[in-house]
Amino acid sequence: MAHEEDPLEHERASWKPSPGLAVAVSDPVKTPDLPPHRARMTDKDPVAMKRAVRTIYTLFYLSVAASVFSVAAYIIFPIESGRIADIRYNNLFVGLGIALALLALGIGAIHWSKAVMSDKEFIEPRHATRGRDSTRESAVKAFADANEESGFGRRAMIRNSLFAALIASVVPGIALFRGLAPQNSPTNAIAGDPVALLSHTMWEEGMRLARDPEGTPIRAADVTLGSAMHVIPENLAEMGHDEGYLEEKAKAIVLVMRLLPEQLVEAEDRKDWSYDGIVAYSKVCTHVGCPVALYEQQTHHLLCPCHQSQFDVTRGAAVIFGPAARPLPQLPITVDDEGYLVARSDFTEPVGPSFWERH
C-alpha cells in the first residue's frame, strides 16, 4: 500500500529562516545590578559632616525664631485697632514669619535627608507576613536600623532643634485664633457685644444716599428701572480713610435697586419703606457677612458669591436658597425736597451674620 505524505510535515521540514529574520531565544531576563555606590562628601570628610549638621540645626532654630517673630508681629500690630498701618504690617510680618518658619523647616529636613542620613541602596526581600514573634522582632529591628541610619537617636542637636521647630511652627496658627474672639474697642462704649455693635450704623433720618466710593448723592430720577447701585451714607465719604472708616462702611453699605412698584410685595408696616419702586437693602449677607453684590435683573434675585445664598428683592429680600438664616435688613428710604434719596431711619434690626445670639 502506498504511503500518503503529509504536506504540513513536508513544509515544516523544508522551512528555513529568511536572511535577517530575528529568531526569539528563550534566555531568562536578568535584573541589572545596582550601580556602584557613590560616597558623598559628608561620608568621606568628617569636617563636611559636622558642617552639614550645624547647617541643619541652625535652619531648625531659625524656624523657631521666625515662628516667635510672627507671634510678636501679631501682638505688636493688632488688627483690632482698626488702623490701616497696623492691618498692613500685621498681614506683612505675620505672613513673612510663618513663611520663613516653614521654609527653614522644610529646607533643613531636606538637607538632613540628603547630606546626613544614610543613602546606601538596598533591596528589601518580600515574603509572606506571619503574625509570629519573629515578625515583631523584625519590625523592631527595622525601626532600630532606621534610627541608626538617620542618626535621629545619636544626633541630639538635630533631634532637639527639629522638635523645637515643629512645636513652634504651630504657635502662630494658634495665636491667630485670638482674632476670632470678640474684641473690645476703646472707642466704643458698647464694645464686646456684637449685637449692640451691629444694631446701629451711620444711617439716620434725613441722611442722603450716596454712590460708593465717591460719595455723590443720588436723585431718585437717576435710578433707572432694573439698575442696582452700591450706596453709602453721604457723610461717610467725608471721613476719608480715618480710623473707624472701614468698620462703619462695612456696617452701613447698602444696595439700591429699582423695580416696577407693582412688582413689590410689601408688608403693611413697610409700604412706606420704598419710594416709587426703589428699595434699599443691606449688602452684608446674613450668613457669615460676605458682600451680596450680584443682582439678577430678570428674576430680581440677589446672590451672595461666597455660599450661594439667594434673596428675593420683590418679597423683602426673603431667603429663597442657601444657608442664610434670615432676610437682608431693609433700609427705609424716601426723597427730600430736592429729589435726593434719603434714609427714613437707621436699620430696624442688626445687620450682618445671624450666628450671634440676638434679642
From TrEMBL:
Residues 244-342 form the Rieske domain. PROSITE patterns: RIESKE (PS51296). The chain crosses the membrane at residues 59-77, 89-110. Keywords: 2Fe-2S, Cell membrane, Disulfide bond, Electron transport, Iron, Iron-sulfur, Membrane, Metal-binding, Oxidoreductase, Respiratory chain, Transmembrane, Transmembrane helix, Transport. It holds the Pfam family QcrA_N. Residues 1-22 are annotated as: Disordered. GO terms for molecular function: 2 iron, 2 sulfur cluster binding; metal ion binding; monooxygenase activity; oxidoreductase activity, acting on paired donors, with incorporation or reduction of molecular oxygen. Its cofactor is [2Fe-2S] cluster. CDD domains: Rieske. InterPro entries: QcrA_N, Rieske_2Fe-2S, Rieske_2Fe-2S_sf, Rieske_Fe-S_prot, Rieske_Fe-S_prot_C. It is found in: Cell membrane. It is a multi-pass membrane protein. Belongs to the Rieske iron-sulfur protein family. Iron-sulfur subunit of the cytochrome bc1 complex, an essential component of the respiratory electron transport chain required for ATP synthesis. The bc1 complex catalyzes the oxidation of menaquinol and the reduction of cytochrome c in the respiratory chain. The bc1 complex operates through a Q-cycle mechanism that couples electron transfer to generation of the proton gradient that drives ATP synthesis. This is Cytochrome bc1 complex Rieske iron-sulfur subunit.
